[in-house]
Amino acid sequence: MPVPELARVATGRRLTFAAQPGERAHVFRRVGGAAGPWHRVAVNARCPFLDEDVLAPGTFVEYYVHVPAEAADGTARDRSLLLSTTT
Fold first, then answer.
1. What is the per-residue pLDDT across 28-76, written as a single tens digit (0 to 9) for each?
2. Residue 6: other Cβ atoms inside 10 A
3. Which domain of life is it from (predicted)?
4. What are phi and psi of 8, to 5 degrees?
């Protein structure tokens, strides 16, 4: 499974995460650390996901990526991860 990654690019922040063909992720963003609320910024996002929202330089931003999936036996097997960076 590829290592999740968050990279700053000229147009925003690019998130890469593990997803099988056909799987879609829900992406949440929190600005300013633990005091800030989580906001859903994408539903059924594909990998890579590009967040092009403009944030002030020096802003601490976190992303929570949730990939609902099924295991081979048909049971739910959600995958989630947390990524962070400073703009």
1. 999 988 888 999 999 988 888 999 999 999 999 999 888 776 666 666 6
2. 20
3. Bacteria
4. -80, 130
